[in-house]
Design brief:
Length: 568
């Protein structure tokens, strides 16, 4: 028995806290069951005559709006029925379903009023989800409508994405009926940007004229405030004379005076637009020195740039919005996704991603269905079983998502994109990935092919494939799931028997091939005449083009690289 003055034994075991995850999920499920059963409800929310029995505690826990209503001594805190104004009953039912279940259903026809309702009720998750959904669904047909909404509610992520698409597709957007519904401030904001992709400033002037004439009585007086945003210093004297004689300008003396003042001042601060001086170029990337070489055979133009400020480039792509993205080695375990800002001539870091298995061999970044995808594979010989792992990049959230995997048994694959699907081709197999379904499908394989396909490019519904030496070219029809051979190049005598390294590309909506002769420093550019069924060599000579990656085609803002641009 211990002595009376002996210290009591103190346990050395520290207390711990435990969290029951099943309780958290079960609690929400139980609350939903109570709502379904109509049990313990103590308030009725009335929206346009429809009555929704609810629980004050649940509403207060989910929304600061309801918490203030029921706890601040307002009249509603004592009422058994609370009437909400400015809400659609169907939308409130959707929100109530989210409050009691945690599941939110969003569609393009409901996302804007759903955002407004969430904004009123201070439901941050619903509001943020609606913002992300709108940003993911910005297309040419929706960009003006979503831009107007985002501008009115200051939804910055959606507004920025809409402006990018409007700028890069201004000619088409400015011809749509939705364009005429823009406010004067929204129109002025759009035409103020350097990134507006127009080849001539008269395009901007004509768009403004159509906007004014759509509602001339209400809009004519806005013309003097809009005109300073048009870069008259970029117009020819003939264009200026025609504008000064336009009926809208002659009808409004203030407009004529604005134009004359802008021209007299010279508007020296107004730079060319992104599309002014932009030309379609073929971009070749040489990874060892991080050099980008660009050529346009028809224009006889070329230039090169070295990018010593970024890590080694391992893959490049050009999106449908004419954005140039590259993957660069950030470390042995990570890749950097970079966007080239053509107006400023700098690379912008967009995201990082862990290097995928097999990335030490071949890796690709590509634009597919409006999103960027990153995948890698090993080149094994002989053919071995491998798994294609792919990730999808969300440009709005800068997050990467896992995609469906593909198990294959081939040595080398060549990617191409057509009709919103990714095609992976080897000499024995063809696989198609549908981003909408996140599924892989096996398609008709090439017939009687023993050579490894080295280069692939899509043009419309067809995908063209060539072996490394340009001995044969096959074309695959994605709609008919059928293959056929193209006529071979009738090589000149001095080039027969030589080994080529061939790369296909599409320029000016025509199929081309770039041929690099390995035995000597000489290069050919051929274009395929589909009507005649023959390859024709272009009579051009360029500085030696070094490349390690498949060429990509982009509209390049030449004023940004003018100091390095060379005519050949």
């Amino acid at each position: 028995m211990a002595a009376a003055d002996e210290e009591p034994h103190v346990s050395a075991v520290r207390p711990r806290s435990y969290q029951d995850e099943s309780y958290l999920h079960g609690f929400l499920g139980t609350v939903g069951d109570l709502q379904q059963a109509g049990v313990l409800q103590d308030v009725v929310i009335e929206v346009e005559g429809r009555r929704f029995p609810c629980h004050r505690l649940v509403l207060s826990a989910s929304s600061p709006y309801f918490r203030a209503m029921f706890t601040s001594g307002m009249a509603e805190s004592r009422q058994k029925t609370v009437v909400l104004q400015g809400l659609d009953p169907g939308l409130f039912e959707e929100i109530l379903s989210y409050i009691y279940s945690g599941t939110l259903h969003v569609s393009l026809d409901k996302v804007q009023p759903l955002y407004q309702a969430a904004n009123l009720l201070q439901l941050d998750y619903v509001r943020d989800t609606c913002s992300s959904y709108m940003a993911m669904n910005v297309e040419r047909s929706t960009c003006v409508d979503l831009y107007k909404f985002a501008d009115g509610f200051s939804v910055d992520t959606v507004q920025k994405r809409c402006l990018q698409l409007i700028h890069s597709n201004f000619v088409q957007v400015a011809s749509s009926k939705e364009f005429y519904s823009l406010s004067v401030n929204q129109l002025t904001e759009i035409i103020s940007h350097d990134e507006l992709d127009v080849e001539e400033e008269t395009t901007v002037w004509e768009a403004v004229v159509r906007w004014v004439q759509h509602s001339k009585v209400d809009r004519l007086h806005h013309l003097p405030s809009i005109l300073p945003r048009i870069r008259f210093n970029l117009l020819t004297s003939d264009d200026m004379a025609a504008i000064l004689e336009h009926p809208l300008v002659r009808e409004d003396a203030a407009s004529s005076e604005v134009i004359r003042n802008v021209v007299q001042r010279g508007a020296s601060n107004m730079k060319p637009r992104c599309g002014t001086g932009a030309e379609e170029m073929v971009l070749f990337f040489e990874t060892r020195s991080n050099k980008m070489q660009s050529i346009n055979p028809k224009l006889r133009k070329s230039f090169s740039r070295s990018f010593t400020e970024i890590p080694r480039i391992v893959s490049a792509t050009v999106t449908s919005d004419n954005d140039i993205y590259v993957l660069a080695e950030k470390s042995k375990a990570q890749m950097s996704l970079l966007l080239y800002n053509q107006m400023r001539g700098v690379w912008e870091q967009k995201s990082s991603v862990e290097m995928l298995p097999g990335a030490l061999c071949h890796q690709h970044i590509l634009d597919l269905d409006g999103h960027l995808y990153y995948y890698s594979h090993s080149w094994t010989y002989p053919a071995q079983s491998q798994i294609i792992i792919m990730k999808k990049y969300d440009r709005n959230t800068s997050e990467w998502q896992d995609c469906s995997q593909l198990k294959i048994n081939i040595s080398y694959i060549e990617p191409s994109v057509s009709n919103g699907c990714l095609y992976l081709l080897s000499s024995t197999e063809l696989h198609c990935y549908s981003p909408k379904e996140d599924r892989w499908f096996k398609r008709a394989p090439p017939t009687d092919c023993t050579d490894v396909f080295w280069s692939s490019i899509a043009l419309g519904n067809e995908i063209f494939h060539s072996d490394i030496y340009f001995n044969s070219v096959s074309v695959y029809d994605t709609e008919a799931d059928r293959w056929q051979e193209l006529p071979a190049w009738e090589r000149p005598l001095e080039s027969r028997g030589r080994n080529y390294c061939a790369k296909l590309f599409v320029l000016g909506n025509q199929l081309h091939v770039f041929l690099d002769i390995k035995e000597q420093e000489h290069q050919h550019v051929l274009v395929y005449d589909r009507c005649e069924g023959v390859w024709r060599e272009l009579d051009v000579t360029f500085p030696d083009v070094d490349w390690d990656l498949p060429p990509v085609v982009a509209r390049v803002y030449l004023p940004g690289v003018q100091d390095r641009c060379a005519n050949t």
